[in-house]
């Protein structure tokens, strides 16, 4: 552009004219590849992408960094051969289930599980089942009500299960041989014992009452996603040295009494 000179010899300065910025929101919306899709319409790619995002959020959190320290100090030494997952829910339908499922996969990796990862929840969808098969997780064919014998060291991953289900898992292993094989990631048993009527506990979850006196409890970190997904969870183990010292009467104390 050449400068123009006026009659007095001054250079005319041509000011830039700014074009108004057009609103391209409609255009960008139209070209966006990200659209909302209801979980009812998901396929395996959709759910896999969702879990990838959940995993990134989890492993980048302060909660997970603190959790790794706890696992290193209190869980890896249990050397579980298998993992049994009860009560996670539907990964397709639930945000909580998505994060809990991701943590289960991370546990298998961290613990270098040599055996099998099992899963059961009656609300699992066909897509949930497809997802489990993709990750080589064996679906438990029938509802065991938690009563699986731990003939090898076994991690029972049971976040936010009902108290009766915890009691059932203990009942199936309620002896000196099998109880030390049981490690439970779930709600703290002492949350139930002492806070509810003993007669109700004896009827609905009798094995939790004596279990509180012999287990070791390590709490999860407190904060993650408003403390809802992993709230009140813990690692609960039954040290062999403690179990071996128990008297025969202890094992009978949990056996439900028949009403007269």
From TrEMBL:
<dbReference type="GO" id="GO:0005634">
    <property type="term" value="C:nucleus"/>
</dbReference>
<dbReference type="InterPro" id="IPR040044">
    <property type="entry name" value="SRR1L"/>
</dbReference>
<dbReference type="Pfam" id="PF07985">
    <property type="entry name" value="SRR1"/>
</dbReference>
<feature type="domain" description="SRR1-like">
    <location>
        <begin position="72"/>
        <end position="236"/>
    </location>
</feature>
<dbReference type="GO" id="GO:0005737">
    <property type="term" value="C:cytoplasm"/>
</dbReference>
<comment type="similarity">
    <text>Belongs to the SRR1 family.</text>
</comment>
<dbReference type="InterPro" id="IPR012942">
    <property type="entry name" value="SRR1-like"/>
</dbReference>
<protein>
    <recommendedName>
        <fullName>SRR1-like domain-containing protein</fullName>
    </recommendedName>
</protein>
